[in-house]
TrEMBL record, chains A, B, C, D, E, F:
Entry binding sites for Mn(2+): 35, 67, 70, 160, 193
The keyword Kinase is annotated on this UniProt entry: no
Protein name: Catalase
Residues in coiled coil: none
Cofactor(s) needed by this chain: Ca(2+); Mn(2+)
Cofactor binding remark: Binds 1 Ca(2+) ion per subunit. Binds 2 manganese ions per subunit.
Amino acid sequence: MYFHDKRLQYPVRVETPDPLFARQLQQAIGGVEGEIRVCLQYFFQAWGNRSPNPKYRDMLLHTATEEIGHIEMLATAVALNLDQAPLTLQETAAAASPVVNALMGGERPRHVVEGMLQQHLLSSGLAAMPVNSDGIPFDCSHIYASGNVAGDMFANVTAEATGRTLAVRLYNAAKDPGMKDMLSFLIARDTMHQQQWLAAIEELGGPAALPIPNSFDQSLERQEFSYVYMGTNVNGEPPPEGRFNTGPSMDGKAQFSTIQSTPLGEAPVLGPAREGSGAQAEQIGKL
Amino acid sequence: MYFHDKRLQYPVRVETPDPLFARQLQQAIGGVEGEIRVCLQYFFQAWGNRSPNPKYRDMLLHTATEEIGHIEMLATAVALNLDQAPLTLQETAAAASPVVNALMGGERPRHVVEGMLQQHLLSSGLAAMPVNSDGIPFDCSHIYASGNVAGDMFANVTAEATGRTLAVRLYNAAKDPGMKDMLSFLIARDTMHQQQWLAAIEELGGPAALPIPNSFDQSLERQEFSYVYMGTNVNGEPPPEGRFNTGPSMDGKAQFSTIQSTPLGEAPVLGPAREGSGAQAEQIGKL
Amino acid sequence: MYFHDKRLQYPVRVETPDPLFARQLQQAIGGVEGEIRVCLQYFFQAWGNRSPNPKYRDMLLHTATEEIGHIEMLATAVALNLDQAPLTLQETAAAASPVVNALMGGERPRHVVEGMLQQHLLSSGLAAMPVNSDGIPFDCSHIYASGNVAGDMFANVTAEATGRTLAVRLYNAAKDPGMKDMLSFLIARDTMHQQQWLAAIEELGGPAALPIPNSFDQSLERQEFSYVYMGTNVNGEPPPEGRFNTGPSMDGKAQFSTIQSTPLGEAPVLGPAREGSGAQAEQIGKL
Amino acid sequence: MYFHDKRLQYPVRVETPDPLFARQLQQAIGGVEGEIRVCLQYFFQAWGNRSPNPKYRDMLLHTATEEIGHIEMLATAVALNLDQAPLTLQETAAAASPVVNALMGGERPRHVVEGMLQQHLLSSGLAAMPVNSDGIPFDCSHIYASGNVAGDMFANVTAEATGRTLAVRLYNAAKDPGMKDMLSFLIARDTMHQQQWLAAIEELGGPAALPIPNSFDQSLERQEFSYVYMGTNVNGEPPPEGRFNTGPSMDGKAQFSTIQSTPLGEAPVLGPAREGSGAQAEQIGKL
Amino acid sequence: MYFHDKRLQYPVRVETPDPLFARQLQQAIGGVEGEIRVCLQYFFQAWGNRSPNPKYRDMLLHTATEEIGHIEMLATAVALNLDQAPLTLQETAAAASPVVNALMGGERPRHVVEGMLQQHLLSSGLAAMPVNSDGIPFDCSHIYASGNVAGDMFANVTAEATGRTLAVRLYNAAKDPGMKDMLSFLIARDTMHQQQWLAAIEELGGPAALPIPNSFDQSLERQEFSYVYMGTNVNGEPPPEGRFNTGPSMDGKAQFSTIQSTPLGEAPVLGPAREGSGAQAEQIGKL
Amino acid sequence: MYFHDKRLQYPVRVETPDPLFARQLQQAIGGVEGEIRVCLQYFFQAWGNRSPNPKYRDMLLHTATEEIGHIEMLATAVALNLDQAPLTLQETAAAASPVVNALMGGERPRHVVEGMLQQHLLSSGLAAMPVNSDGIPFDCSHIYASGNVAGDMFANVTAEATGRTLAVRLYNAAKDPGMKDMLSFLIARDTMHQQQWLAAIEELGGPAALPIPNSFDQSLERQEFSYVYMGTNVNGEPPPEGRFNTGPSMDGKAQFSTIQSTPLGEAPVLGPAREGSGAQAEQIGKL
C-alpha cells in the first residue's frame, strides 16, 4: 500500500510562464515516452512478478513509487506554465504591445492562443491532463509487462532511453531557469533508471538470458535460421556488413551469417467461400 | 520501393483447423508484440534515419521487408484455422456427436462459437484481421521510432523479446504439426532479430552509447542523482541489494549507491483560479 | 431539430433469449459496419453539406433520422436477449439439467457465462452498449464526411454493403423467429440504402463524377500514370488480366494498360541529425 | 511525493483459482468504473486544483494515494486467480475427468481456455493487465479533472457509484470466500468515497453551488429556457410528470415547467463549396 | 423511432467567421464534455432502462432527442466559422494587409492556418467533425449507462456540469454576437439539464438512494470501513477537517470519522512461474 | 513474401522545407484517407480472399505492394520538410529578421514552432510518424476487409476517392515545386486506383453484384421495404425528388418509391431489473 508527502520530490518553479512549454511538457506526462507509462509499467511488472525470489518485485516497487512523484512534478510544472495563459483572443490583444496591436488589427498575437493545447483552455481549466503534447490521451496498451522478467527489463531500458531523449529535447527547448533545473533532475533520474535495468539484465545472466525467453528448448526452433541475417534487396545486392551479420552471435552460441531471402513456401490456397458466409456468389462458386 | 512473390517465405499448413487457435494467432498479427508492429517500426525507423552513414537505414529496410512476409504467413494461418469454423450454433450442433447432443439439448458444444473472436464470424468472413487475440485493433502509437538510433535498437530488442515470448507461448499451445512447424521458423527468426539489434548496440559503442542520448552534456544533469538507487519504503527499510545498486555503473562512469527518498521540494501552491475560467466562485475567491 | 415516437420502427420480439446472440448483435450497433456509424455519418454529411443545391443535404437528413430508430431496435433486441442471462456461475449451474450437472461437477455449463460479453454482465446491467461484438467501443473516426459528395456516396455504399453483409450473417446465425423477422426488415432497408446512394452517384454524373474529386484539373496530374496498372511481382510475372487493366477506362477518358513497376526516384538522403536534437553522437557526426 | 509498504491494504486470498473470475476482476482494474480511473482522476484533480484554500487538494491526495493500493489488491487477486489456469487445450484435457474426456473427444472442457482473456495467456504470463474484462486497455480520456471543483466532485460520485455497482456485481458473481472478503472491503470503501464527495458538494454550498459553474452570471444565459423541460414527442403527447418538471427548481431560483419543443431557428444555408477545396464540381456550382 | 424538422432548435448565425473558434467549438461536439456524449448517453440509458415504471425511460427519450438538435446547431456553427478559412498559406498572404505582408515576407499571417485543426482543411472540407478541439475522435466508451438509474443520474449531472463549464468557457472566448447568442441558449439548457437529473435523484430518494446501488445488503460489506476517511500522509499528519470526515454521514446511517491508513494484509506471494509459460528460467526456478 | 529496392518509386525533393507542410503531409500517411490504410487494407483483403478464382487476390497483392512505396515517399517528404525546423523558440528568434524580432520582443515568430506537430519535435526527432495531421495515430480498425469481394471493392473506391481528395487538397496547399511534382504522381495513381476497383465491380457483374451480398436469397427479406425511400420529416413534408426515389432501382429488380415513416412496432417493455443485478431497489420493484 501507499503513502504520500505533500512536498515534491524536487523543486518546481517557473519564472516566466509559457503556455507552449506547458503543451510540450505534456509529452513527458502522457506521451508514450512519459511518466504515467513508466509508473504503471513498473507497478504492473511488480504486482505480477512470478519468481522464487522476490528481489525484482521489490526493486520495481521502489522505482514505480518514485515515478508517481515525477508525474506530480510535471503536472505542477504544466499548471505553473499555464498561469498567465490567455483565456480569450481579446485578452491576448490587451496583453500585446500597442505597436503590435496596431499592425495586427487589434486582436493579435492570437497565435499564442492558437498554439496552445485547446484542451488546456477548454477542458482542464489551465491544468495538466494525462495526454501528450498534441492532446492525445495516454492509453494503457503501452504498459509492457510480459511475465518474462528479462523482456521486461529491456522494455524498461527502452522506456527510459526514449524518456531521457524526450527530457533532453525539453531541456534544450526550455528557456526558463526553473524548468531547466527541474529537467536536469529528471534527466539524472533517467540516467540512473537506464543503468538500473541494464544492471538487472547483467544480473539475469547477460548473454545467458538470451534468447528471451531462455526457458524454451532451442532444439525445437528451426536453428538454421536462428543466426542468419536475411537480405531482401530485389536485385540481390548484399546487405551492409556489420556486427549484426559477422562474427560470433551475441549469445555465443553460433556465428552470424547472411543469406538472400527466397520463398520456401507455396502460394496459399484458401479455396472458395462457404455458403451462408456473406460472400458474393462468385466467391462461393455459385456464378 | 517494393516487390512481392506470391509464395510464402515459409510453408504454412494446418491439418486440423481450430478457430480458437485462429484467435490466439491474432495476437501475433495485431497484438503489441506482433508482426504489424515490428514491420512498421522498422520501416519508420529506416525511412526517418538521420546519420552521416546509411548503414542502419539499409539494415532496417531488409528486415522490415522480411516482416511483411511474416504478417502474410500468420494471416494465412488464421484463415486456414477458420476453414471449418461453425457459422451458427445450429451448425455446431450438427457437427457434435449424438450423445453430446442428447445431453446438451441439441445445440451444443456451442462453446466453440462462444470462444471465437466474434469479429472472425461477423466482420471478416473467416479471415485474419489486424487485431489482437481479444479483437482489439492494432494502433500505430506502438511504432517506436524516436530519432535516436540507440534507443530505437533497444525498442527493437524489446519488440523481439516480447515477440519471441509470444511465439513460444503459441508454440506450446499449438497441437497441429503444421502450426508447430511454422512457429519453429518464426521463433528462429525472432532469435536472430534479438541478436541483430543487440549486435547493433554493441557496434554503437555498447557502454559508450550510454546514457541514451549520448550527445547530451552530462555536466548539465544533476549528477548527484545520476547513479543512485532511491528507496521509497515507508519505514525506511533498505531496498534489496543487487547489481543495480552496487559496484560500478554500467557505463563505467560512477559507482552505484542507494539512498532513501526524501522530499527536496515544497508543497506546490497554484493559487486561486482566474475570473472567467469556468471555476466555482470559491476557487476564484469570490465566496 | 428532432422528435421521437415511443414506438419502434418495426416490431422487436425475442422468444428464446440468448446472451451469445446479444453479443453478436452488438456488432450491428457499435461495429464499424453498424448503425451508430451510418447514423452519425449521414448526419455529419448532411450538416456539413456545401452545395448550391440543398437536395443531398435533405436526402441525407431523412435517412440519418431513420437510422436512429435502427440503433433503437437493435438495442432493444440486445436487452431482450439478455433477459435470462446468468448473473453468476452458480446460477448457471442451477439452470442446467441434473445429468449435465452431475457430469460437469455441479457448476456447468459455465461456458454460457464465459461466452458472454463480460461488460454486459458487469458494466451495463444486461443492456446494450455502444460497442462491437468483442466489446470494443465505437469511435467516431469511422464517420466519413469528406466534404466531397461523390466520395461520401461511395463511403455510404460501402457502409451499407458491409452493413448488409453483417445483417445477413446475423440472420443466418439467428434461430429465434422474432430475431429473424427483425433482421429481414433491416436487411431490406440496407438493400434500399445501397440502391439509394448508388442512384445518387448516377445522378451526380456516374462516369462524369470521376475521378473524384472531379473539380481538379487533370492536366496537373502525371497522366502517364493515371490509367496504368502497375505490377510489382519480383520476377516480372505479369499481373492477371481483367477489366481493371484492359479496355477503356471507367471514366471513358483513356485505355487501361499494364506496366511493371520500376524505381523512378533515387535512394533518399536525409543527412546527419542536428546538434541538440536528441540523437546519438554518431548520428550527428560527432563520433 | 510517494512511499510504499510491501504489505497490502487488506488481505487478498484465493482458495479456488478461477480464470474466468480473473477476467471479470479486470473490469475493476482497467474498466471505466475501475480503480486506475479513480486513482489517476483524484491525482490529476489534486495536482491541478486552483483555489485560495488547499483543503480539497489535500483531501484528494489522501484518497488518490489510497486508491493505488486498491489497484494493487485487485492485480494480486487476478494473478492468484490465474494460478492454475490451463496454458494449452491439451493441459485442459488432462485435468478433466475421464468420463467428460470420453464424451468430449479427449480435449475438453476446452471452454475454460476459450472463456479466458486470451491476453492473460499470451501477453501477461498469467498476471493482471491494465485492461477491462473484455481486454480493452484503459485510456486516460476517462480522467475527469475539469478545473471546476464542484463538477469534479460530481464526477467522483459517479465514478464511485458505478464503481460500487461493479463491485457488488463481482461480489454476487464470486464464489471464493477470499474474494468475497476482499470485495466486502472494497465495497465499504466505495460507500465511504461516495459519501465523501457528496459531503464535499454540501460543503461547497449544495444548491448554492448550482448551476455549475456558479461563477457565470446567469443573466447572460437565455433564462426563459433555464428551468424548462422540453418535450420532443412527435405527437405532442406530454412528457411524464415528475420532480424534474414540477415544483421549485433544485437551486431554488425558479419553478420547473414543461413545453413542447419547436424550431426557433431556420434551416441552415452553408452555400456552395469553394474552388480548390476538393469538392465535386456540382458543389462549387461549376456544373 | 425518430423524425426531423429541417429548421434548427435555435438560431445559429456567425458575423465574423473565425477558424480558431471553429476549432474550439469542436470540443462541444466531440469532446468528452460534448453533445454527442450526452445524446448517446441518454439514448442508451433510455433504451436499456429496466424498471417496473417506464417514467425515466420516457424522460430520458425526450432529452436525448433534444440533444441531437444541439449537435446539429454546433455542427452548423463550426461550418459557418470555417466559411472564409484560408485553404493555403498563399491565400493567407493575399488576405493580409500590405504592411503585415511586407514585414512578414509575403506569406504571413500563416499562423491562422497553423492554428486550425488541420483535419478541417484536409479531411472534412471546412465542416464539423465528430472530434474534439485537438482533433481527437469521440469514442463511445464515454457513454455511461450502468443499468443503475441513480448512478446514471449522477453521470448525467456530471456530463451537464462539465458541459456547462465548457459552454461558459466558449462563451467567454467568443467575440461574435451570433455565437454568444447561441451559447447563451445552450448554457440555459445545460442549467436545466443539471437541475433535471438532480431532481430525479431527489425523486429516487435522495439519501435513501445511497449508497449506490441501494439494493445491496450493507451488512455484507465490511462496515467498519464504510464511513471512515483514511489518511495516507507518510508522517501521520492528520487530513484536513471538513464535512467529509465529521458529522453524520450523508445517508444518515453513521458518523464520519478519520483514521490513518495501515496495512491489514501481508506482502503478496505469487510464487514461481510455470514451466511452459514463456518466463525466464530463473523465474521457473530452473537456474 | 516481399523484396525492396532502396530507390523510391518516384522522385521526392523539397526545395524550401516547411514544418507546417510536414504536418499536413502526415494526413496522407496516417490519416484515415492515407496510405497506411490502403496498403494494409489491400494486403488483408488479398491474404483473406476466398474464391475459386485467385484473380482478385493476385490483383490486390500487386497494388498493396505498390502502396508501401507510397508511404515511403511521403515519409521521406515529411523528413525533408522538417530539415530546418526550429528545435526551440530561441532558435526561431535567431532565424527571424531583425525588424520582426524588434517588434515581437525577441522571441518570435514563435508561431512556426506553435504550428508544428509537437510530436515531430519531441518524439520522432524531425521524422515522419504513423499519425495524421493532428497527431493521432492510425488505428487498424480502418482496414476494411469484409470477406465479401464486392463490398471490399466499394471500400477501396471510397479509400481512393477520399485519398485523392486529400492529395488534391495537399497539392493546392503546396508551394514547393518538388512537393507539387510528387503529389501530381500520387494523384495520378489515385485516379488509376479508383478506376481499377470500379472496373472490378463491373467485372463482378455491376448491377448483378447487388444487393451486396448477392448470395442471400432476397425472398427472405421484407421486400416491401427494399426499394422504398422513407421520409422522416415531422410535418410529413415530402423528401426531395431524385434518382434515389424515382425510376427503376439500380439493380433493375424494382421501381423506387417514397413513403412517410410510421412506427410499425410498439413501445418496448423490458420489465423490472433482476435481484442481484446491481440496480436500484426501485428498478427491482423492492421499493
